[in-house]
Amino acid sequence: MEDIHGVLPPKITKDNIDPDASSKKGKVMVWLRAIIHTLLSSLLVAFAAHSLITPNTFTIGGISGIAILLNVAFGLPQSIMLFCLNLPLIVLSFFFVKKKFAFLTTLNIALQSLWLLLLEQLFPDFQIAFEGNAEKIFAALAAGICIGTALVLAFKVGGSTGGADILAVMIQKKFAATSIAWMLFMINCVIIGASLFVFYDGEKTLAYNLLPIMLSAFESYIESKTNDSMTNGFHSAIEFRIITDRPEEMSRALMKELSRGVTAIPATGMYTKITHTMLLCVVSRRQVATLRRIMKSIDPDSFAVMANVSQVLGLGFYSAEI
Length: 322
What we know:
Elements: H1 14-17, H2 24-53, H3 62-74, H4 78-96, H5 99-122, H6 136-156, H7 164-175, H8 180-193, H9 195-199, H10 206-234, E1 237-244, H11 247-258, E2 263-268, E3 275-283, H12 288-298, E4 303-309
Antiparallel strand pairs: 1-3, 1-4, 2-3
Helix pairs in contact: 2-5, 2-6, 3-4, 4-5, 6-10, 7-8, 8-10, 11-12
């Protein structure tokens, strides 16, 4: 039998994937990328709060939502309220989470306050207000997409947008929660419920008074779905479980042509009691057609189960940054 190691590509290591990660230049590029992501993230949150949410008379969850409510109820500037309300959470983050997370979150909050201040002072009329109540759903939809995208950008580089995000990460670190996005959704629902007292109008109908809460809940739902969809979309892959009687040839071809690892597991058919081999291999979506061709050419009688994998972390795919 041909030596399998003689035809395989070199083993992928961390140095192959990111050889300059530990160098001075590499570290500068990592931080530059983090700062650019944070700039975009903070701008999206500020734009959504000032231009979409406030003029359409509803709020959002988290500290940003509280700042909006204070602005509507008492006329206090959102930019100042946002920073002051986040300040205690910023201090806590330096004690309970990683320093990088705390620094990037502080930077994000400071930039949000700065963007809001610029919008309040220089572009006070840069607001998209929908006249009809039915059309306000588009403001909630756009705001949810903007803030959901901002969350992804912040989390991707190891930071957050502040407020409830800090609480969610601290809770996740303590209790190993599975989804920050859905945890944020639950925290935000509590804050959104308080908006009824700010937007309530005794001369209006019950349906009218409930509209801000419904818009806020819809925005939070879109925000969490955008967060989950974008995160899973970036890190998704396809898992194949292949039952074959030619495991050596099949695994050799998979490792050589796809540069993916393969794990062999003994598998016994309960009807025939014959032992076969199950090959487990995770590939990117663009490699699915090649894998199917390999199966057909190596072992036409093989059997495979294909499944979507929402998160893949590790060498050759994606590295966890948080």
